[in-house]
Amino acid sequence: MSGFWPTSGTGSIASLPATPNNFFSPIASFGYSYNGVARLDHQFSDKHHLYLRWFGGQGSQTAPLGGSPALGTASSNLAYYFEVAPLHVHNASAVLNSAISSRLTNQFLFGANYFNQVFNDANSSFDTKAMKLFLSPDASINGKPILGAPNIRISGFEQTGLTAPAGRSDLTWHLTDIISYTMGAHQLRFGGEGRQAHLNEFYHRRGTGRFVFNGSQGPWACSGDPTCALADFLAGKVAGGPLDPNTTGSTIAVGNPERWVVVNAFNLFFQDGWQITRKLNLNFGLRYEYFGPLHSDKKDIAVFIPGTGFRVQGAGLDSVFPPDKNNFAPRVGFAYQPTGRPDLVVRGGIGVFFDQINLNPFLDFRPPIAASQGIQGNAFGATPVSTYSRSGYNWDAVQAGGASIFPGVKPCSDPNCAAPTDPKGLSAYSVSQNFRTPYFYNYNLQVEKGLGNAVVLQVGYVGSQGRKLNLVSQINQQNSAGVFITFPNFGNVLQLNSIGTSNYNSLQTTLRLRACHGLSSQFAYTWSHALDEISQYRATVVDDASNPKLDYGNGDFDTRHLFTVNFTYDVPKARWATSGWSDRLVNGWQVSGVINLHSGQPYDQVRSYLNLIGNPFAGVDHKFSAANGGTIWVNPAAFCDPNAVDPITKLTDPGCPGSTFGNVARNKFYGPNFKDVDLSVIKNIAITERVKIQLRADMFNLFNRINLASGVGSVAAGGSFSPSYNTCTEDFVAHRCKDGVGFGQVFDTIGDFNGAPGLGPGEQFNMQLVAKIIF
Description:
mainly beta
């Protein structure tokens, strides 16, 4: 299997020293995008106008996948495992505007959108069966062996096989009609829209298998150490412990997960803009929304229903979840001029807004535990998918004589997998039969005041509350003996519910300077707080299914303070350069810039099940250290692991109270802040009255500030401590440290952390030169 790691050509890892951080990829990312637009406007008469629009584009990129805790993805510097993602997009619309009378108008719109994108590793030619790595008899796509390297995770080493074959294709069309009618002081609008989406998803996630080697299986007591992890791999000893696909054990999904689904939706609305007095305008209305459940005519969508077992949509189950037909959304807003002059305006509003149901939690959830990817991953129905997990074994011994590591597809013949011949311990995915459409209460109150002729100040409160939001829980939790007690025939059972809540409150201020002596600018400051149980619609499961509110806390994207400035300054013209080349060279200069300052976002330690037993910021200064490759953000001695079982991490100190879920609240602590200044110098050269050339130099992160990663997953929580990292063993109380390289440290910059190394927001100083023809 050495072929999984490149040993020749550019990007080879051959002859590297046996030291940490010994490889920097010389392979450049690559991408292109070719796009076209077309427009046709036609006036049939003074009353009827037709507008036709079309956009088409295709492109591709080959780049590191980008590590994302939110999506459960990892990154690799190995060129074999850069992600290749070709894309095709088409969008078309037709709008007919009709002025039926001086008071009555109608707008009819037809729109269609096509999207197609597939994903693969840059080297997806590996045939594991031909390489004598026997994953499963059914590790295939349409009867042919599935190609691509398995995801092999050796602690401290680059991973292989990050992108199993995946992709989606969808076509959405809609018809919209809006009638507007003026009646005295009332501006009436009413109409509706019908929409249908056709979606084909073919995500073979974990189709090539995932295997973890962490050094826990050999005779050595050094779990997590790269040397011991490599020894486990060379000995074929797959990690043991809980079936967590990211840190221990192994998992695979076999079968055909491709599904074609259709979703229907429509809405109706009525709205009245009423000018009650010269000072007061009232806008109110009512909207009705219907978002139908996804369905398929192929009868290949199976849903696990507690108390009933598996049911197939269209064959014993009418719909994946009961349609929600009560989505009435009233809204009201006002604008008031207390003095009767436009320089002082008070605005406010409140309304109910229903949210389009996202299909990713149904068909591509990407669970952080060993479980089905969605309802397409259930082992029942016409095209079953079996998800297997296994830990603490020797894969060489298992494959002796050509045997496979995992079985083939074994669907349940009984809805509860209770038949003697049915497989046991399979994962299942459920959708609550009380699932409802998520909605929000949005409200605001704003005051806008003109300060002279050029300055406008706006101060306001903006808030929202979310209800019936998507939330996934593991409803087959284990007891203290590790036995699945609720559904004993199954392993992990995930259920998609609509019981989540959210809350957002903010003070928002804006100061706008209109063009004054060539200077235009805007200053904006927001002080806010966002709370919820879960912020991500993928890859997140609540800690305790019996108490989801245990996860209620700061939202993943909670940014308490945000300050931005943008400005544009037109350099005054030189009076002596009035014509010809002197005017073209000397005049037409412009300077613009953006200043962005914001506080850090939370990093989630609660899912590490830790207890807080001390001051997490004692002895840390948050200074960047090149020797450590980052900064120590929290003191690891302030945390302990009440569930540790490894002899190295077993905590007997009475200061570490026992608790299955730990006592560290979700998103309790915040990561590094962000500061960035961007500047552009622009030169406009007039060629003719209608044609000009624009030259510009755009400089990003002008002062080259180190912006460390912030947000969920940015502060490390895994690996092994050693003096070489200047962490727990050397500086803090060793016996209270959670086992993990760099626990409590930030190793990455924000751009690289978000999948845009080098050129992303906040990355090191860089500049681009641009030439543009404007006509």
